[in-house]
């Protein structure tokens, strides 16, 4: 009896709890969602078979560590570009060429958490040359080349914990920025008590110079700042192009239970950094060299192995030691998350996730405040400006938990609001909300096509949400994160499409397809193959032994390997298959996999050379085959390796085509 | 049966051309060609960018020869022997069977040669594989011909 009662009670409580949760989280349901008023949403996202989408969308993979590529508005999934995580599908991070990209001062790191893709810019507009993306956990920045859609470079950031305020570029891609979300002691391995936080811990704002021709990154300097959490960043535009802005929270300097302890202050700061002045200070010798071990991994030439360069030492500007002002704090309510600059470069919008308003700072008023000396205090030499002197307006009634804002270039801003799971559209003239629409569910970033530039091409908006719940056919307790596509060409935002994505699509950018697609490579030209182990003359296919190291210089074409019979390999050997794909037709890919290899397959694009390492540990005959379905005779594309005992005297031989 | 296949293939081809032609001029020209069959030049020298006889000196051009050999060794040898058939036909004596223009068009336009040229179609039936385009430029195809001439003269 008692048991039954308690079950009932539990049922009632659970039911009530569910209703409460549902009321809180499900702010809309499919039956009530606002779709297009007029016309057909399906028609608006329909791209006929064989036709191309108008936009490339680049969605970060979040905890997948990768970057996914989508066609918009159809939401066609195009590919995953592996960046910070090993990818057995392509062999990225498993092939000898790509392994060095994963080297860090902490060793080989096969995973990271990738958050903010940002496309390179020229004069404030996306130019489609490269896309940068940050690694949050073991702080790094990657550069992906948009000719081959491959990761070409990964740079580690020293003195940084949680590189979240990254990897945003300045207007002409002069710099890509990094920032420390979790302040740490500045010199590495400084073994100090955690409660020495305020004395020993410091923040680091990183400025990485980008070579305008090659895109190659160089950690030029770091700014040492008070130990707050530097959360997000954005570069200015037009009149504010020489500045970058970072949000901070935890100005309380808490190091435990931040959920409570870092939420006490009514205002934290947006840090406004005059990067041009900071760079001049560095150039004029105001910086000093501090220890800081880090790796810089990159390719040189057209092909070959990524190079891992180990570096030590970084130039720092310490605000406590420099008299000139180049960084200012703008008080901003309350634990601001996003900081976003409108297309004119005038408005700096903070997403105060615990605030009841969206604060909008004015760049011109900020300059005036600096000129007027409207400084309320200095923290470690950094002037804190008067809130009333820099604020241009506060958007009332934005919903609960405003996070990120993008702009349409027509005078409106769109802010994602996490807790109430909606997007609010507001006017940059009146600072009043003019429209709002539900997000499914719990929206983080949003993205406008052509956004975060001087000239957004604002036809569509994508909301990147954190939970799918009931939106699609259920796929278990953990489901893929959704994205929603909205039409923002009219007065009202209209939901067009809702689709699952990969990993956690944390932030995304979209760019007009014509800025990229005509430049995309179809093959690697064989004449330009400078890989040290490439097969440049077919007759040079061979197997070489040097002690226990055996190198197979192998070619592939439809539909055979050369050589395809190899004998004289011994247990204990380390065998490298250097496979050159000798095809020169677009999208004709060959791969290789061999039985028992403790490795993934390796896919090789036309004209490319890739290397698979294999350490056979048992004698026997090992079949290998092409993993890519390359032709009607794909199944015939196979070979055999004979592995003999360690002390065997079977001579090393190889052949093709002589049965 | 064979003629039915030919008709179906022709219809299929016409549809393809109409759907994917670069511009209207190409479409019309292709239609005319289909109705009238290939031109006499095309029948003899292949379909492709080489549309008239090229001038070839008696004497071997050494620079062209070197260039042609390099490309051959990089892009052709995977499937061809000079002597004896492999994936494709032997090439040591190909200039006895084909004109230089035919060889060049085959290198430069292998897909259409296999699909539309009676000789290409015959070879596809025999070798069961379509020769891939190896990103060889027109001047490079000419150089390969020079190497094939040299080889034939010296072997």
Explain this structure to me?
The complex is a heterodimer of chains A (659) and B (155). Chain A has 659 residues and is mostly beta strands. Chain A has two domains: 54-519, Methylamine Dehydrogenase, Chain H; 526-655, Cupredoxins -  blue copper proteins (Immunoglobulin-like, Sandwich). Helices cover 9% and strands 42% of the residues of chain A. In chain A, the strands form ten sheets. In chain A, strands 6, 7, 8, 9, 10, 11, 12, 13, 17 and 18 form a ten-stranded mixed β-sheet that branches. Chain A has a six-stranded mixed β-sheet with strand order 41-40-43-44-38-45, with no helix packed on it. Chain A is globular, with a radius of gyration of 27 Å. Chain A starts with a helix and ends with a strand. Chain B is mainly alpha-helical and 155 residues long. The termini of chain B are far apart. The chains are: A mainly beta (659), B mainly alpha (155). The interface between A and B is medium-sized, with 24 and 16 residues.
């Amino acid at each position: 009896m008692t048991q039954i009662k308690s079950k009932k009670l539990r049922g009632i409580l659970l039911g009530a709890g569910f209703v409460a949760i549902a009321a809180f989280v499900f702010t809309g349901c499919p039956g009530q969602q606002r779709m297009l008023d007029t016309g057909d949403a399906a028609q608006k996202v329909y791209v006929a078979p064989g036709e191309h989408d108008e936009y490339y969308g680049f969605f970060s993979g979040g905890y997948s560590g990768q970057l996914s590529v989508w066609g918009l508005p159809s939401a066609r999934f195009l590919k995953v570009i592996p960046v910070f995580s090993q990818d057995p599908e392509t062999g990225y991070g498993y092939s000898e060429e790509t392994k060095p990209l994963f080297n860090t001062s902490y060793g080989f790191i096969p995973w990271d958490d990738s958050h903010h893709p940002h496309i390179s810019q020229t004069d404030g507009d996306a130019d489609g040359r490269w896309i940068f993306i940050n690694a949050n956990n073991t702080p790094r920045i990657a550069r992906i080349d948009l000719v081959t859609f491959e990761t070409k470079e990964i740079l580690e950031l020293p003195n940084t914990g949680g590189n979240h305020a990254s990897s945003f570029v300045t207007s002409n891609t002069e710099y890509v920025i990094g920032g420390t979300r979790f302040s740490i002691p500045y010199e590495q391995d400084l073994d100090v008590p955690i409660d020495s936080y305020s004395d020993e811990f410091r923040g680091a704002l990183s400025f990485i110079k980008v070579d305008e021709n090659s895109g190659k990154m160089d950690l030029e300097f770091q700014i040492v700042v008070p130990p707050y959490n530097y959360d997000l960043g954005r570069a200015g535009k037009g009149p504010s192009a020489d500045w970058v802005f970072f949000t901070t929270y935890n100005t309380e300097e808490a190091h435990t239970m931040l959920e409570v302890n870092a939420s006490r202050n009514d205002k934290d700061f947006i840090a406004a950094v005059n990067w041009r002045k900071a760079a001049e200070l560095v150039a004029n010798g105001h910086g000093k060299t501090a220890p800081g071990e880090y790796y810089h991994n990159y390719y040189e030439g057209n092909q070959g192995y990524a190079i891992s360069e180990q570096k030590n030492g970084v130039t720092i500007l310490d605000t406590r030691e420099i008299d000139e002002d180049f960084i200012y704090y703008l008080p901003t309510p309350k634990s601001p998350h996003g900081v976003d600059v409108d297309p004119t470069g005038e408005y700096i919008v903070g997403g105060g996730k615990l605030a009841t308003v969206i604060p909008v700072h004015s760049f011109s008023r900020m300059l005036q405040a600096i000129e007027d000396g409207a400084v309320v205090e200095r923290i470690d030499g950094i002037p804190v400006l008067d809130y009333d002197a820099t604020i241009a307006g506060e958007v009332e009634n934005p919903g609960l938990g405003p996070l990120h804002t993008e702009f349409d270039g027509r005078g409106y801003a769109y802010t994602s609001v996490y807790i109430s799971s909606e997007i609010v559209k507001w006017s940059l003239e009146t600072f009043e909300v003019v429209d709002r629409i539900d997000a499914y569910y719990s929206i983080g970033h949003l993205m406008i096509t052509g956004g975060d530039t001087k000239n957004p091409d604002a036809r569509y908006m994508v909301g990147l949400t954190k939970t799918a719940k009931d939106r699609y056919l259920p796929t278990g307790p953990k489901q893929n994160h959704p994205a929603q596509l909205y039409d923002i060409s009219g007065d009202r935002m209209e939901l067009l499409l809702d689709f699952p994505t990969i990993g956690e699509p944390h932030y995304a950018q979209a760019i007009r397809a014509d800025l990229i697609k005509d430049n995309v490579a179809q093959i690697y030209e064989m004449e330009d193959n400078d890989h040290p182990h490439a097969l440049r003359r077919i007759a040079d296919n061979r197997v070489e032994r040097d002690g226990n190291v055996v190198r197979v210089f192998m070619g592939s074409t439809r539909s055979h390997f050369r050589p395809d019979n190899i004998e004289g390999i011994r247990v204990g050997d380390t065998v490298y298959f250097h496979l050159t794909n000798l095809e020169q037709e677009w999208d004709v890919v060959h791969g290789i996999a061999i039985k028992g290899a403790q490795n993934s397959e390796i896919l090789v694009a036309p004209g490319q050379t890739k290397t698979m390492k294999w350490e056979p540990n048992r004698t026997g005959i090992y079949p290998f085959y092409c993993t890519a379905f390359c032709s009607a005779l794909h199944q015939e594309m196979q070979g055999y390796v004979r592995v003999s005992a360690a002390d065997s005297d079977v001579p090393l031989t190889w052949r093709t085509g002589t049965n | 049966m064979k003629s039915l296949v030919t008709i179906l293939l022709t219809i299929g081809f016409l549809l393809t051309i109409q759907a994917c032609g670069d511009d209207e001029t190409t479409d019309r020209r292709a239609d005319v060609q289909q109705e009238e069959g290939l031109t006499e030049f095309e029948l003899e020298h292949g379909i492709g960018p080489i549309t008239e006889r090229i001038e070839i000196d008696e004497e071997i051009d050494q620079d062209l020869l070197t260039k042609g050999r390099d490309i051959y060794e990089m892009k052709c040898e995977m499937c061809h022997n000079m002597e004896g058939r492999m994936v494709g036909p032997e090439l040591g004596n190909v200039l006895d069977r084909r004109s230089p223009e035919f060889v060049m068009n085959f290198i430069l336009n292998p897909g259409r040669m296999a699909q539309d040229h009676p000789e290409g179609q015959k070879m596809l039936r025999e070798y069961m594989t379509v020769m891939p385009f190896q990103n060889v430029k027109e001047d490079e195809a000419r150089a390969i011909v020079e190497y094939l001439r040299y080889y034939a003269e010296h072997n």
